[in-house]
Structure formats: C-alpha cells, structure tokens
Specification:
Distance between the termini: 21 Å
Largest sheet: 5 strands, mixed
Structural class: alpha/beta
Number of strands: 5
Radius of gyration: 13 Å
Mean pLDDT: 89
Oligomer: single chain
C-alpha cells in the first residue's frame, strides 16, 4: 500500500512541477518523496504507515526538513490527520507544511496541491 501511495503522490508532484526531478524511496514501513529543482530540494514528503507513525524520530526528521527551508508533506492514514495537524500546529502556512490523509483500504486519492 505505501508503495502505491508513493507512486501516486510522486506522479501528482511531478504534474505540479514538471521541470523538477521527483524521486521516492521505499523503506521498511514508510516512504520518502523528494522534489528537486536545479540541485535544490523544494519539498520532502513522508508517507507514514500505521506502524511508522508511532516512531518518536519522526518529529525530529520533520523539523530537520523544515529547518532547511524545505516544504514538508506528511501523508498519514486519514484517521490520523487531525492528530498530526495538532502535533505540527506551530508550523504555519501551506508553503511550509501540508498534512494529507489517505484511505487505508483504498490508498491515496490525489488532492489539489
């Protein structure tokens, strides 16, 4: 499921910025997508599973990305969206952070960026 969501999200990001290089990396229970343009990372998206969402290291990774001036995308199971927004409430603005939910049964349905 995570792989399919990563492929769909990467496709969506590529359509949004056709001149960028969009790559995704599949890990054990999560995926990471990077959008790079002219040797600069514009956005990093983390696709979290039910299992990976509970790891405490996630917040550190998120804030490391934000500290570098990179837009952060967090994709979590739909039922965890509000909790994730609360955890990241200090980060304001759609140009810095987006939290997107996916359906655990049906996967990711592309959204408007």
């Amino acid at each position: 499921m995570i792989r399919n969501i990563a492929v769909e999200r990467a496709r969506e990001l590529q359509e949004h910025c056709p001149e960028a290089q969009v790559t995704h990396e599949l890990l054990e229970d999560r995926a990471i997508i990077s959008v790079r343009l002219h040797d600069r990372i514009l956005e990093t998206d983390f696709i979290e599973s039910r299992r990976s969402i509970s790891h405490p290291r996630r917040s550190n990774e998120y804030y490391d990305v934000l500290a570098q001036g990179i837009k952060l995308g967090i994709l979590v199971p739909r039922r965890d969206v509000e909790g994730e927004k609360v955890k990241m409430k200090r980060v304001k603005g759609p140009d810095r952070l987006v939290v997107i939910g996916y359906d655990e049964e049906f996967g990711y349905r592309p959204a408007i960026i």
